[in-house]
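Why do we care about 3D structure at all? Because function follows from shape, and shape follows, mostly, from sequence. That is the central idea of this module. The next example makes it concrete: a single protein chain, its amino acid sequence, and then its structure expressed as tokens.
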Amino acid sequence: MLLERMFEKRSGSSDHEDGFNNILLNMFGGRKTASGERVSESNSLVQPDIFACVNVLSDDIAKLPIHTYKRTDSGIERKPEHMSAHAVYARPNPYMTAFTWKKLMMTHVLTWGNAYSYIQFGPHGYPEALFPLRPDYTNAYVHPTTGMLWYQTVINGTAVELYDYEILHFKGLSTDGIHGKSPIGVVREHIGAQAAATKYNAKLYKNEATPRGILKVPAFLDEKPKENVRKEWKRVNQGENIAIIDNGLEYQSISMPLQEAQFVESMKFNKAQISMIYKVPLHKLNELDKATFSNIEHQSIEYVRNTLQPWIVNFEQELNVKLFLDHDQKSGHYVKFNIDSELRGDSKTQAEYLKTLHETGVLNKDEIRELLERNPIENGDKYISSLNYVFLDFVEEYQRLKAGGAMKGGDNKNEG
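And the structure:
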């Protein structure tokens, strides 16, 4: 209690002061919740629902490849050979693949509200590596005089100060645009309640699912007979033998049954609250009470649009600003997540979609084969279009030509 009063949030306290307080509180297991459980960003992933939400979201972002493009006068071109492309597409640093790095960044931002990576630039001025930084040791500051944004962190055990352009900073919900707010702080009480419920359930099974209670006797007992009855009852309920209750003894439970405590319902409610904060549909947490095939399909589409898309845009904009030089940005270079796999649907739907794009001339055969990771074929680079469609400017002329052809055909028939 003393520790929490020392570091509780004061009105007017800055975000970096709160960050320092959170570091100290995390060292002691986090703030104590009403359920008696201590919850912090460091230990939050021990809670199954938090772990599930973070794991689902981080996996869904990490599996999406990041491609580099350039806008030109003739259209948009893929630029996998660009100096910045390799770091985000294949190998951010010598220790991690792109999937691992993206998953770690999402895990940090979903638990701490902020994720940081140090950008190591090469002699050519382009990023060569992206090294993740611990969010509990990293903080952003704005210089009171110059207004310049800078970061303080710890690298290899040494405190360092870095410029804004040297740090990739992905943040969640923010009230100042500089520091992200930790989702764990919002659902701390629900996490504590879930942890307490899990412990209660475990203790119940440890006691062979036997609730606490009292043995009532019709007469007064001395201390020794009481102890004998207590030992016999404990021995019986540990599964050693059959219960033997003497004449006149009556057992009465004094613990709260799980049904009266609405144990299962409260755990479902806490799970729903946690999933709501992270915007993860309950069916992704294996909560299928009200799920049907139809609504799961629509929820999956909503999940991509309302949950994944904001995070994707968040990452894309930060990467575009920090990984490209000024002249690269002005010349039209940018990175973009490929979310086709999330919107692909089943094989039949995908086939119909690609068929429509091919028949309307949007994609040629080689472009479709590239999406399916197949090699080009002869004449596959040619576009097709249906003869049933014509530009509005040529409708009148097309009708005249069609009518003229019909008349000519009729004349030939009469002449024959």
